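Pasting as-is:
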Amino acid sequence: MRSKLTMTSAALITACFPLLAMAQDDKPKSTTTNLFQAFIWPETHGVEVLGNLIILLLLLMSAVVMGFSIMLIFKFRRNQVIPEETRDEIEALLAEKKYREAIEFAQEEESYLGQVVSAALSEAANGYAAMERAVEESGDAEAVKLLRPIEYLNVMGNISPMIGLFGTVFGMIVAFQTLVDGGGSADPAKLAGGISTALVTTFWGLVVAIPALTAYSLIRNKVDAHCAEGLLIVEDLISPFKPSGKKKKPASAAPATSARPEKPKSE
């Protein structure tokens, strides 16, 4: 009896295997796309190679923007633009009337503060007005030098959306051309490849542009604030050269008791 049950069970299990296999084959196969394929190297089926190259270019630009922004943040710290040590040393030399030493020390300083003070002290022999003009001119020139590297962020922030838009137009052209070649019933995989390239290039163009323009605005405002503060410090340092402009003392009134000279009496 037990042997018959065992044989029957085995036969049922053996018969069920093909049914289970058929049931598994009937289920739709799920295709998963990882993040790398979705955002970095989409499946283009060998059609949109140029689109993938555009994506790689934008990825490289994104890395450059991030690294360059971090470098500028550390380069344009307050202590690098207007160092406290430089201010204290120049102030001490001027207080001791060591003007030549102060000029030489300022000339050796590569900071914004050192260069502007050096230009101002070099005009000390021509008067305080000449020193003020030197501060304004040198301050503008040094500020332009500081702001020039930041413009690269502005350039990359404005160019990257254009590169992404170029990839978008290219991807849409490929998608519509695929639809035309298929006579209105194109291969969905090839059609989706062109659309995917169009969207991904736009995505990476924005990924580059947003951080680049944000960093450009923040760093530029930071440098402007440091330069404005530096000009105030320079004006304070050269204030001892300013003419004193002492006010004239008002003439003392004649005492009330003083007698006026009498007119000679006519005889």
